[in-house]
Specification:
- The chain is about 45% helix and about 20% strand.
- By secondary structure, the protein is α+β, with helices and mostly antiparallel strands.
- The chain has three domains: about 120 residues, Beta Barrel (Elongation Factor Tu (Ef-tu), domain 3), CATH 2.40.30; about 70 residues, RNA polymerase II/Efflux pump adaptor protein, barrel-sandwich hybrid domain (OB fold (Dihydrolipoamide Acetyltransferase, E2P), Beta Barrel), CATH 2.40.50; about 120 residues.
- The strands form three sheets. Strands 1-15-12-13-14-11-2 form a seven-stranded antiparallel β-sheet.
- Helix 3 packs antiparallel against helix 4.
- The radius of gyration is 48 Å and the shape is elongated.
- The N terminus is likely disordered.
Length: about 375
């Protein structure tokens, strides 16, 4: 009976006064408001000190690999997505046609050198002919002088004297012709015009060097480290000079292009640290450094930039491209690929007090 009386007394205990109930509810609401306010203030300060955007992606220099000469592909030594080092042989074009051109050019050099030797021999022969003609001229001149003395004494008839005079004129003409022949031979040998001394040989040697250069182009090497992509060539395919064969992507030299709103770049400066995440690897954080800020907005460098001088102007928040270099130690396995979406956060180094000072209306 006593237990029943105790239970009934507990059930019939008086409820809390309405005033105390309102105070308790008000206290709970106040705590919730303070917590939400603190959280909102924290987000606000974080947004002003750590600048974030989701309009960012990874970029890199894509190096196209093309042929400098035409021909048939003899060997392809790489495959898609293969990592290659600078100087590695990528493919080889059939070199036989170009080896033949080198042989022909080398033969041309030998012929030019033989021609020069022959020309020098011609010069020597022409010089000997001049000496012979000169001796005949001197002999004819001496005989004419003797005939003139005899003719003046009426010892030699006029007909014989005329023959001596004609012989002297003929020998003089032969001497002049021999001298002209010598000059012509000297010119051909390049002994008179010094600038053309080795002109023919130099021309043939230049042709030989050109043929050797064309032969070297039949082997295509990697110009830098990177991954092979867009490979569009196989063995036996006939290619043309300038044709694109594949591309190299140097993943060790990638960077991030982040398009921040113009109101977000107020406190961005080169050298600031950056943390970023990639959609492909959730939960993994990478690091980098703000490298530079572009000299204009993306719209200013577009193919058709907006003409704001018209009467239909509508203000649109512009975005400014920012280049962010990637810390290679945060990506040792080279997981990042060009074109991946990135969410970078620039750590400006500003403190909470710096942000709150901006909100002070009495400053």
């Amino acid at each position: 009976m006593a237990e029943v009386t105790s239970a009934s007394s507990e059930i019939e205990s008086p409820p809390l006064p309405p005033a105390r109930k309102r105070v308790k509810t008000f206290g709970i609401l106040l705590l919730i408001i303070i917590a939400l306010g603190w959280y909102g203030l924290k987000l606000f300060i974080s947004a002003r000190t750590n600048i974030e955007t989701d309009n960012a992606f990874i970029e890199a220099h894509i190096v196209p690999v093309s042929a400098k000469v035409s021909g048939t592909v003899a060997r392809v030594l790489v495959k898609d997505n293969q990592m290659v080092k600078r100087g590695d042989l990528l493919l080889e074009i059939d070199p036989r046609d170009y080896q033949l051109q080198v042989s022909k050019a080398a033969a041309g050099v030998g012929m030019a050198e033989n021609d020069q030797s022959s020309a020098q021999m011609s010069v020597e022969g022409a010089r000997a002919a001049v000496q012979s003609a000169k001796a005949r001229f001197e002999q004819a001149l001496l005989e004419q002088q003797r005939a003139e003395k005899l003719f003046s004494r009426d010892v030699m008839p006029k007909e014989q004297f005329d023959r001596k005079t004609t012989a002297r004129l003929v020998s003089a003409a032969e001497l002049k012709a021999a001298e002209e022949t010598l000059k012509r031979a000297q010119a051909e040998a390049g002994l008179i015009v010094r600038s053309g001394n080795q002109a023919k040989i130099l021309q043939r040697k230049a042709m030989l060097e050109e043929a050797a250069l064309q032969l070297s182009y039949t082997k295509i090497y990697a110009v830098q480290d990177g991954y092979v992509t867009r490979k569009s060539v196989e063995e036996g395919v006939n290619i043309q000079a300038g044709q694109s064969l594949m591309a190299l992507v140097p993943l060790h030299a990638t960077w991030i292009t982040a398009n921040y709103k113009e109101r977000q770049i107020t406190y961005l400066k080169p050298g600031q640290k950056v943390k970023f995440t990639v959609d492909a690897y959730p939960g993994k954080t990478f690091s980098g450094t703000l490298d530079s800020i572009m000299a204009g907005t993306g719209a200013a460098f577009s193919l058709l930039p907006p003409e704001n001088a018209t009467g239909n102007y509508v203000k649109v928040i512009q975005r400014v491209p920012v280049k962010i270099t990637i810390d290679r130690s945060s990506d040792p396995e080279q997981l990042l690929r060009i074109g991946m979406s990135v969410v970078p956060v620039v750590l400006t180094g500003r403190t909470s007090s710096d942000v709150l000072k901006e909100l002070n209306p009495f400053k």
